[in-house]
Amino acid sequence: MEGEVGIHPLSESPTAAWKEISQTQKLIKIKVKIPQSPADENKLRFVCMSDTHSLVRNIVFDVPDGDVFIHAGDFTKCGQKEEVVAFNNWIGSLPHRHKIVIAGNHELSFDAKFTHIFKKKFAHKEVGDEVAHYGKTKDNISDAVNTVNIKQFLTNCTYLEDSGIEICGVKIYGSPWQPEFGDWAFNLPRGSECLSKWNLIPSDTDILITHTPPLGHGDLVCSGVRAGCVELLNTVQTRVQPKYHVFGHIHEGYGVTSDGKIIFINASTCDINYIPNNLPVVFDMPLKPGF
Ligand code: 5GP
Ligand code: MN
Ligand code: MN
Ligand code: MN
Predict the structure, then answer these.
(1) Which atom of ligand 1 is nearest to the CA of 272?
(2) Is the pLDDT of residue 125 over 80?
(3) For residue 266, which phi and psi values (nearest 5 degrees)?
């Protein structure tokens, strides 16, 4: 493949990898601002959210109108059918003409290969804590894991999973995978397994949606470590070069940055305490000729 991406020697140590890689990269911080007027006629408006974790009833802002609504995963707490139905109803109430959704690690029911529950420790803590933290019972979680054909309940949006869609000539691609952390859905070991998913992203993608951040952008965890994927950064910078890369997952990494070429958007609506406080991120893209 042209511009093939290799495995970085520090692939499994993202904090150390970024220390090295950041020496030769620009990192520009961009302020999040909700536009006060509609998009120009010759532009397409995108509105991005992520990590709403079944808490949309608690949001205190209005979701800005636009042409395309994007949700970058973790729309539930554990992917239970009731949560998916509620999310589908909510997204159905939004005014956007196009709505695009990917799954995150919390959408257990969307990952057909996710069958183990409480095999090791579930999530970031021991089971007892975890259940308290998410307000979920073991029964809720087994329920989610045992639900089949869950995608049928997402009737009010386009669900992308290692797949793409073209809207007004803009090529959009979505992927739920992330470097593994605590036995969740769509977890993969860092390095070649993650890269094999990023290798599926078409090189002509204009807007990339992943649940995980790439290394170095919106991936700084409050403990001070970096959690982004090294091979995802490499893939977007050297091969795909999308105009926008939208993601979430690391709630405390919310915000917009750039390397001078690509705009990176961590659209996590929930903050580190699972309070849905962060505003949607809006951007406008010029329409291609003929649209
Ligand atoms: P979630 O459980 O919603 O996927 O992620 C919630 C929080 O867990 C993130 O905001 C971050 O603090 C932490 N987290 C998620 N993935 C990772 C990871 O790969 N490494 C570290 N250190 N923390 C993570
Ligand atoms: Mn999340
Ligand atoms: Mn490209
Ligand atoms: Mn997540």
Answers:
(1) 10
(2) no
(3) -95, 105
